[in-house]
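mind reviewing this stuff:

——
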Amino acid sequence: MFVRLRHLLAWVISVFRAREELPLENLALRQQLLALHAKRPRLRLSSVDKLFWVAMKNMWPGRRKSLILVTPATVVRWHRAGFRLYWAWLSRTRRVAGRKPLTKELRDLIFRMVAENPTWGAPRIHGELLKLGFNSSERTVSRWVKRATNSPDPARRWLAFLRNHRQAIVAMDFFTVPTLTFGVLYCFFVIGHDRRRILHVNVTRQPNALWIVLQLREAWAFEQPHRFLIFDRDAKFSANVMSTVKQNGTEPVRTAFRSPWQNGVAERWVGSVRRELLDHVIVLNQRHLRRLLKEYVCYYHEDRTHLGLGKDTPDGRGVATTSMGQNKIVSLPRLGGLHHRYTVAA
């Protein structure tokens, strides 16, 4: 009784149903009949059948009433699987959007510019890269600048500071030399930081403030004095010496207590004098020491090469043109044969 009532209601509904849905319902039923009559060991829907029901899902809202072989959830699962395949294919074939990633060489160049130029920002570095022919955005450069090390080596920054100011800096100091007959003598010298030139050197037995002032006046004579004068906290550099230095237009700079490294240029010259001259001779008296120092200063300026000057001399020693086997190399003794200078024979 219930089955008959259901068929009667279905017939009444079909009478009032829109005539456009009847062809779709017939098409759906025929497609299922074809799938059932396929000669296969077990019922399996092909890809064409799955596409058919996926398309029918979008075209016909009343598809569920005619589904017999599969459930509506299965059709929805097929639909989602199709979308996954579509987007996987689209992601594989489409072009990559955005700018090209920076190469390792360009990233290393940015890091190098940050390390060598601590005051530069991203706009300055980006402008430098544009001049070098690199086409990259400022925003990209800014992102890599943030990843770089912003604090370079402090020693490198201090070296750059000294190179920018060494023409205006001189230093003075004392060192002692024992003699054979006069006890200990005091050697005073003034050295420039620019070319490591010895501006003045002299020897005395009893150094005092008045003698130091006279030596400073002889060092500059009528030349323009340097801007800064570095010296340690020796008691011999008294207030009178400080006032004289200021009157000459030079700013005195004292080093810290027990910090000889703050006057490193002068300390290295003292070490050079001891290793290359004083450790190999016996000083007789004040006159003898003054003559030795005068000869050493000439050798130091004209012949001795310096690592800090790019292996050049303070006076700028010229480079000789030689060809092996055709020119004769001669040696010229210096400081009584302790050192030699080599040159091409005329």
About this structure: The radius of gyration is 47 Å.
